[in-house]
Amino acid sequence: MTAEVTAGPPADVTGRVLVAGIGNLFLGDDGFGPEVVRRLAASGDLPPPVRLTDYGIRGMHLAYDLLDGYEALVLVDAYPGGGPPGELTVLEVGADDLGTGEFDAHGMNPVAVLANLDQLGGTLPLTYVVGCTPADVEEGIGLSEAVLAAVPEAMEAVRALVRRILPEGPPRPVGPQPVQHEQPEQPVEPRPVEPHPVQPARIRRT
């Protein structure tokens, strides 16, 4: 299932930013990306050039959407950064960081999607990853306590990236934007958020 909230005129791709939630809701913490995107959509506080989409494991859908032309892409995903569960990592990703990967039209390997974008006639936009170290990616619905607690911090990291990409963006929309999602909402306690430095790094997804 793909859920999205799109704001702004669809025919004008100038300055558009795609925020993509990546992951399988049925594999525990792998559902981190879709949860962050769902909550961002509900908050309704991102400017109109930003498109929020939960791609789940639909790699082909993401690839073809990127052909529409975007100034920037923000991937939100579980990321094995090597730190403790719930640790956030913000990366800036370029073509040289991707290497090669076999594109699976029926799955989601974001590295392979981006690495093969040129073969589909597209160009890699300015790309960031907001990743969270998972605690458990075994079968099951729902995030672990550590990863669930990192969701508000990840939301703020996405907002900070959007401000960096669109510093002179148009006014924010008023009120929440409805989005449908199969994962039930889980309560989370807010906690103080500090800005995350953007790191250049290689990314791999197994």
Written overview of the protein:
- The model is unreliable at 1-14, 103-107, 177-195 and 200-206 (pLDDT under 50).
- The protein is built from 6 helices and 7 strands; from the N terminus they run E-E-H-E-H-E-E-H-H-E-H-H-E.
- It is globular, with a radius of gyration of 16 Å.
- By secondary structure, the chain is of the alpha/beta class.
- The protein has helices at 32-43, 59-66, 95-98, 110-115, 145-149, 151-165, and strands at residues 3-6, 17-22, 50-56, 72-78, 88-93, 126-132, 198-200.
- Helix 1 crosses helix 6.
- Helices cover 24% and strands 19% of the residues.
- Strands 1-3-2-4-6-5-7 form a 7-stranded mixed beta sheet, sandwiched between helices.
What letter string, H or E per element, gives the SSE order? EEHEHEEHHEHHE
Give the strand order, joined by hyphens, for the main sheet.
1-3-2-4-6-5-7
Q: What is Rg?
A: 16 Å
Shape: globular
Topology of this structure?
Elements lengths: L2 E4 L10 E6 L9 H12 L6 E7 L2 H8 L5 E7 L9 E6 L1 H4 L11 H6 L10 E7 L12 H5 L1 H15 L32 E3 L6
Parallel strand pairs: 2-3, 2-4, 4-6, 5-7
Antiparallel strand pairs: 1-3, 5-6
Helix pairs in contact: 1-6
Give a summary of the structure in a few sentences:
By secondary structure, the chain is an alpha/beta fold. It has six helices and seven strands.
